[in-house]
Specification:
There is one protein chain. It is built from three helices and no strands. The chain is mainly alpha-helical.
């Protein structure tokens, strides 16, 4: 998000763009928290064979959601011309 801060300082984008980036970043943060919760649940299910498939499915969904949220954020920033570090 440092790149976004630099972009805002130099380009002063419209408020609507800033709000969109904030929304996408908040979605990404929420997805990361859900991923962490899912990873913990999966780890705890390692001792419960019956719970493992459900925990694995939950973890897989959380990974996919977090990946999509990060993609949404980075694609939007790239479209605005924000130079993202590799």
């Amino acid at each position: 998000m440092r790149a976004w801060g630099d972009y805002v300082s130099k380009n002063h984008p419209p408020v609507a763009q800033e709000l969109k980036v904030q929304h996408l970043f908040d979605s990404y943060k929420a997805a990361q928290l859900a991923l962490l919760d899912s990873a913990i649940a999966y780890s705890q299910a390692s001792t419960n064979v019956a719970a493992q498939p459900g925990a694995q499915a939950q973890l897989d969904r959380a990974v996919a959601t977090a990946s999509a949220a990060l993609t949404d954020l980075t694609v939007f920033l790239s479209r605005l011309g924000v130079k993202l570090e590799q």
